[in-house]
Design a protein that fits this description.
Blueprint lengths: L13 H16 L3 H17 L13 E3 L4 E11 L4 E10 L6 E3 L4 E4 L10 E8 L5 E8 L15 E2 L4 E4 L3 E9 L3 E2 L6 E2 L5 E4 L4
Antiparallel strand pairs: 1-13, 2-3, 2-12, 3-10, 4-9, 5-6, 5-8, 6-7, 7-10, 11-13
Helix pairs in contact: 1-2
Length: about 200
């Protein structure tokens, strides 16, 4: 399934990049190019960090796609304490210079997880209920830089598979919990791309 046009860089890039480039240009005039080198390095870092590439979303029915660019850290059958069930858990380590956007792993309606106790490194939790009746729980792990503004989709809104939900700013890992009968399509150590790589198939019948 193709995706509509979307800018290749997050809008958050420009207010940071333009002053940096302007200051570097002035420093190259005086006192010299050597003084501008640190700012050009910062500018390159900003471009890499806010890069948000187009991704071709797979057309495979009932596919669970990766929400981030990163590496599969673990695949295991566990007890999902968020909604009290046996589940397939996939943990992804987030690539620091991967795509800026956090994407929806499945198509469905965002639902409330209810009142849950806080977790030390948890900076967001959401539940997506698909039209086929499957529940996908996504847990975001990160530090203090990831505490606000990661997910910009409210409860009750429908999301599409691979749709941009927010940013990966400050995330170091994402955990996905799906039905126990789901079949994993990847193994630990595999590199995955947000929105385009399939992690599991939800219909294991």
């Amino acid at each position: 399934m193709s995706q509509v046009y979307y800018p290749r860089f997050s809008g958050r890039l420009w207010p940071r990049l333009l002053p940096c480039v302007l200051a570097a240009g002035l420093l190259m005039i005086w006192p010299g190019w050597w003084a501008a080198v640190p700012l050009w390095v910062v500018a390159g870092w900003l471009v890499a960090r806010f890069y948000d590439p187009y991704r071709e979303i797979p057309s495979t029915p009932m596919a669970l796609v990766s929400p981030v660019d990163g590496v599969v850290e673990s695949v295991a059958r566990v007890n999902d304490d968020y909604i009290n069930r046996q589940a397939l858990k996939l943990r992804l380590g987030v690539h620091w210079f991967g795509a800026y956007s956090l994407r929806s792993p499945a198509e469905g309606k965002v639902q409330d997880l209810g009142r849950l106790p806080p977790e030390a490194d948890c900076c967001g939790r959401m539940r997506i209920h698909t039209d086929e009746g499957h529940d996908v729980v996504m847990v975001l792990r990160g530090g203090r830089w990831a505490r606000r503004g990661l997910v910009r989709v409210p409860v009750g809104e429908r999301v599409g598979q691979g749709q941009r939900l927010g940013s990966t700013r400050g995330l170091h890992a994402v955990e996905l919990y799906v039905q126990d009968r789901a079949r994993a399509r990847i193994e630990p150590g595999a590199r995955v791309r947000a929105g385009s790589d399939t992690l599991a198939l939800l219909n294991h019948d």
